[in-house]
Amino acid sequence: MTAIRIEIENTIPDRRLEKWAAEARDALGVPLAAIEEVKVYKTTAGTTENLAPVFADPVLQQAHFDNKEYKFPHGAPAFVVDVGFRAGVTDNPGHAAAEALALSGISARVASGSLYFLFGALDKSGAEKVARELLANDLIQKADVYPANDFYAHDRFKNVSLPEAARTTKARPETISLDLADAGLEALSRDRCLALSVDELKHVRAAFKADLTDVELEIIAQSWSEHCRHKIFGAEIDYNGEKINSLYKTCVKRATEEVKKARKLDWLVSVFSDNAGIVRFDDHIDLCIKVETHNSPSALDPYGGALTGILGVNRDILGAGLGARPIANTDVFCFAPPDMPARTEEEFMPQGVKSPRRMLEGVHKGVEDGGNKSGIPTVNGAFFFDRDYAGKPLVFVGTVGVLPHALPDGRKAAEKQAHVGDRVFMVGGAIGADGIHGATFSSMEIDENAPATAVQIGDPLTQKRMTDFLLETRDLGLYSAITDNGAGGLSSSVGEMAQMTNGALIDLALCPVKYPGLKPWELMVSESQERMTVAVPPQHTAAFLERAARHGVTATDIGCFTASGNLEVLYNQATVASLPLDFLHDSLPQMKLKAAWDGGRERAAWSAETNLQARTRQAEGLDAALLQLLQSPNITSKEKWVRAYDHEVQAATHVKPFADGGAIWLKPHGGAEDNGVTIGCGLAPRLSLHDPYLMAQCAVDEAVRNVVAAGGDPDMCCLLDNFCWPDPVQSAKNPDGEYRLGQLVRACQGLHDACINYGMPLVSGKDSMKNDFKGKDKGGRDISFGVLPTLLVTAMARVKMGSVPASHFNTAGDLIYLLGGKGSGLGGSEYAHIYNACAKTPAIDLARNIALYRKIHAALPLFSSLHDISEGGMMVALSESMIGGRNGAQLSGTLDAETAFSEAPGRFVVSVPAAKREAFEKIFGAKAIGTVTDDAKLSFNDISLPLEAISAAWEKGF
Amino acid sequence: MMQPAFLVLSGDGINCERETAAALRDAGANAEILHINDLAAKPDTLARFDGMAIPGGFSFGDELGSGQILALKIRHALGDAFFDFVAAQKPIIGICNGFQVLVKLGLLPYPATQKRVMALAPNLQGGFIDRWVTLQPAQNSICKWTEGMEAFDLPIRHGEGRVVFGDDAVYDELKENGQIALTYREDVNGSHQHIAGLCDPSGLIFGLMPHPEAFVYQATNFAPQRDFMAAGAGAQIFRNIVTYLTETQKEKSYAGRPH
Question: B76 to chain A: which residues are within 8 Å by CB?
Fold first, then answer.
């Protein structure tokens, strides 16, 4: 029987697509006058009866079931693009529509899609370009482009079919022999997307066996992937002749241990062992925090990659302790500038990677949907633009969660322990081929042959239901341990939880699947989203299943925890893998690497040749330079992007994400009435070109200043580190590997020293080591380049409610001070970047900085406003302080470019009521640099810049 | 005096149930969060509540249009018990996604006929927006929830909040009836005549796009406030309905007392 096609016409104008038409004209150079959308659903429902009220709103829309020629105000369309998901790709509208039909007693499948009508004088190649770049992602969607006449010529409402994902492959495991020469092993690893080295495969052969099942080999590959195992961070490194036994142990973990000991910290509940760091800033609740990256998936499909990134880090929190409730999201994006490429430069852009603008739009929309649809406020974030992110974007997503100290049954919520005999439950979504090889793929550089199965779309509704269900069953005491299914899927989650009891046994044939035909190894390593693995004591399974059914959540008993010492995997009761846990988790020999760093280097050739020279400006006056800086994408207002995120849901957002750090009130989450927490972030990737040691310290400093400016207590502050590096392993393909690893060593040492000096522990972190593009540019030339070595530092500090000063000037007559001293050194600054100024880097004085932050925190009531100095330096911070309060500022003394625009760390622009001058100057020993005025002008040297000009430049946005 | 009992609906992607229940409790109500599937298993439970809140969120991921599938579910899974609740003239508030649900159910603006005369369309600006807005209660508003209130600020957080009428005459009638409870002081989403919230002819069923439950304390004000425990503008909306219910209970109990 043929399926039914339903088209939904908007009967009132919908202007959401206008920006796409503008983008097609501006960025793609396609003369697209207008674009209209008609939603399409295809369903196996037997009859069209009763369908219209389900699919269409009678006031806004009209449903069509027969051949229909649409009339639009723009005249006749030139082309029609018919877009639908490829088979097996998560189709959220389709799934929801099927639920809606089920409510009316109709049991049917539904697939969703869209028709786009393109208007204007464009040709077929232009229409195809619009389809490819704007309307559909070829990896997950099918887009058919028709000249409008051809489109109407055939009856699309006849012979309708839904995409079918069923596979016909046999589900039996294969045996794979490792009795191969090196070249054979290398080919095996490459062909199966294992990301295992020849040495690692030889180790499998020697320490386990030579003939193993594909399930075993895939489990090993996932568990040993750089993504899961962090082999580089754990490696023995020869650094300029000095031996370093694991950067993780000697820099990251050691920093925390030293700080904990020196400051006798009693608020570190769990660090580096669980899914997230857990700290105690409150007498009733604990806070969990985790920041992840989702770079490779976002490079392939910006929307899906970012969406699954944010939902994934939410699950990390849901899997922290016995399950924490997510209360805030953060996000930081590093992209190539949104106006890149100018059309003349397009041939230099990497092939197969989305344009910077599409990347930005897609990632932003993914984070928007992921946060908003989950009911989690986005309270902090940043955008950083540099052309070296054109081959691979960096997408950092973080989540804060809350755990009660104790659960209703008295158990500590931060601790979990599965027991022998507990059942292994897979909870949430079903398994599909989407998300196979995510962990191993992200452990390789991007080229144009990335596997389509590595792309996934998230399903916020399924995850929200699962979250509600798990938090309820947590409080009912129905499970004993929980972890998320992230990279590596069941292979990682069950493999790791099995260590709690020293064994687990599961039968993959029991797992719910999206469609039949998946092989056992695919079931085992698929990273299909929205799944948690939960240990349920046998006496609670009935109650657990009953609550799952009530929440509309799928929960499946797939095995049990054992003490066999093995991870045993069955398929229909036949063993398909049996792996000793000690072999799997502890036998991998430490990697040995060489690192060397001999000072800063210029950028790699790719970016220098294509853009750098052409884009720098001639030096100009301070006022012109300020206006130029204010409209740089790294500085300009991000308000329109931030406003697309819900930052108020859960009714606890105390400081909104427009200032320095955002802050959350803890009372609504069970905390003390006057208690809050603030989150900030810092990064300084351009300093990596000069010295990664300084880069890391400046990243720490910026994150800390963010939270100090939002009232955070520097003595109750924890940090997170997220390293995103270009491949630091030397090879014939990667001749800069040793240098990049040297940069990593320098950065880790800088991070360690900053933590020690600031007295702040690292509580969680992550690293992503293969952020490179290797392939061709659009002109067909071979290119290869990595991202700027990037360290994101996230800071979370306790804040006392009611103590947070404004971030902008608010009262004329207030005195303006610069705290932290006059800036010197333009190296790494936005000013140096725009004007190509060769400049020395700023210095950092960690001891002086932390002393200042403690003083500021103790003196918060003295401030009218407090704003940290970051991109653009002091004059930009001053301008932002004026814009927020619509004030003016009159500065005394004489400014030069270095003072005005240095991004030297450790500094703030503040304002203080004249009446508090004496008290303030006594504490800070600072002298006022000017006064807040009500004349809406920024006056300095002989210059007077109207606020409107400043605002106009800053509000340009992108 | 009994505390009025409020049902706060949850599940299927609703996500403001906790703060909505907290706001009702702070206002003096006894608020209980119930999952729609638990309610559907025992629809008679509804009868023991004096009022209902359908909170904000993204029910069913906003697929097929905001509120559409949750409205279908309420109609099919709760059925008579729900419409009996409406017929008993018990107060119902639909906030943001809850407003969209009430409109899709046809309970706003006319619960008696349930005729679909209005819709909440995608914002004219073309996307989700989170911002604070100034709201003006209408002089002639009959809404019990906003009774006696002067202009106040609340956040909006929605992508589909533009009020659209199938026929402009509906607007005139609603205005005449005092059913236009709240308007935005400026155009924020292209809504007809800046409408932010409206009520049924009894003034008891109230739908609004802004989020009163997000501003119960000054702690969540747009700008950080030192007096963070002082009441925010949203608190009064919940107090009003608790006062209304307490007063009507009093009247009922007086009426039932022998003279």
Answer: 103-104
